[in-house]
Specification:
It is globular and about 55 Å long. The strands form 2 sheets. Strands 1-2-4-3-9-8-7 form a 7-stranded antiparallel β-sheet, sandwiched between helices. Strands 5-6 form a two-stranded antiparallel ribbon. It is α+β, with helices and mostly antiparallel strands. It is built from 8 helices and 9 strands. It has one domain: 3-Layer(aba) Sandwich (Beta-lactamase).
């Protein structure tokens, strides 16, 4: 019996944190670390990422423990919590709300489910205790829920969102059973076309692609920290399955500033550019020669926040 291949590790130094890749394929680890570093070089965005590919036993991270405003990627967490709370069986109303929340990133549906999963002792500050119960079960210990009702300001990390993608795409029934996991991925497959940008860019065109994105511009109100004033938070997460594909990518960004005199959407588009440069670099290395998926640009309406405007702003 042949010995299992040892993991190869490669680090590529960038300003600050380094890209860290491991794989049973030493050359792939080296290439990924270098290519991701090149994709990050010169970008003004602050970015964190976590990537896994099960067939090649590959994992890459960059500053994956840093916390970011979630914007609408928290909707995948809320969906997971709803499915966990209901044992995977939703009512017709819950199904309709969940579909709106994921496939069109509907904020009102999200707020309704957030409140359903909350302690409403103080209705003005719904405490999402049932969402926290799911996070604890899933081992997502660095995700900090906003208990003022501003779900879009939940603090997430690339590492924790990676855990969620692995949970949804894996075979472990200890948190969510197979039917619930399949349901969640099914909704992510149905995300409308102008919201499929980001961590999907450059993916093999014959893969089954599941995605959820989030984008949020903070206001310039006096009570907002100076770093956040006017800043676009742009996040993306995607899972590839089918035909032997089994991978997940999370990229979170902030400091996507709008240059003076430029349209406000420029900040969002800059964040998307950072994410897609990383995504294309990863998929080129892992799947060389594959025909590439090229996502549509977001519709002009997508420049409006995908998370509810925080009441603290």
């Amino acid at each position: 019996m042949a010995a299992a291949p040892s993991a190869a590790t490669q680090r590529a130094v960038t300003a600050g944190p380094s890209v860290h890749c491991t794989s049973k394929n030493a050359e792939l680890a080296r290439k990924l670390a270098g290519d991701i570093s090149k994709a990050l070089a010169g970008r003004k965005s602050m970015a964190s990422l976590s990537f896994y590919d099960r067939p090649t036993a590959t994992k890459c991270t960059f500053d994956a423990g840093k916390q970011y405003d979630s914007a609408s990627v928290v909707k995948t967490v809320i969906l997971g919590a709803l499915l966990y709370e209901k044992g995977g069986t939703l009512t017709g109303t819950e199904d309709a709300l969940a579909r709106k929340m994921i496939t069109v990133s509907d904020n009102a549906a999200t707020t309704t489910l957030w409140r359903q999963l909350s302690d409403l002792t103080d209705p003005k500050k719904p405490d999402p205790v049932k969402v926290q119960k799911f996070l604890d079960k899933a081992g997502m210990r660095d995700t900090v829920l906003d208990k003022e009702g501003n779900w879009g300001l939940t603090q997430v990390t690339a590492a924790d969102q990676d855990k969620l993608l692995r949970l949804l795409s894996g075979g472990d029934d200890s948190v969510l059973r197979a039917g619930a996991r399949s349901y969640a991925l099914g909704l992510m497959r149905q995300v409308q076309s102008d919201q499929r940008w980001g961590a999907t860019a450059g993916a093999p065109a014959d893969a089954v692609i599941q995605v959820k994105n989030g984008w949020l511009q903070r206001s310039r109100n006096p009570d907002v920290p100076d770093f956040d004033k006017g800043d676009w938070k742009v996040n993306s997460m995607a899972v590839l399955t089918g035909k032997g594909y089994d991978s997940g990518l999370v990229v979170l960004t902030e400091n996507n500033r709008v240059p003076e005199g430029r349209p406000t959407a420029d900040g969002m588009n800059y964040g998307i550019g950072t994410i897609e440069a990383i995504s294309r670099a990863i998929y080129r290395a892992v799947h060389p020669g594959a025909k590439r998926y090229s996502p549509s640009a977001p519709a002009p309406a997508a420049a409006k926040p995908s998370a509810q405007p925080p009441v603290t702003d």
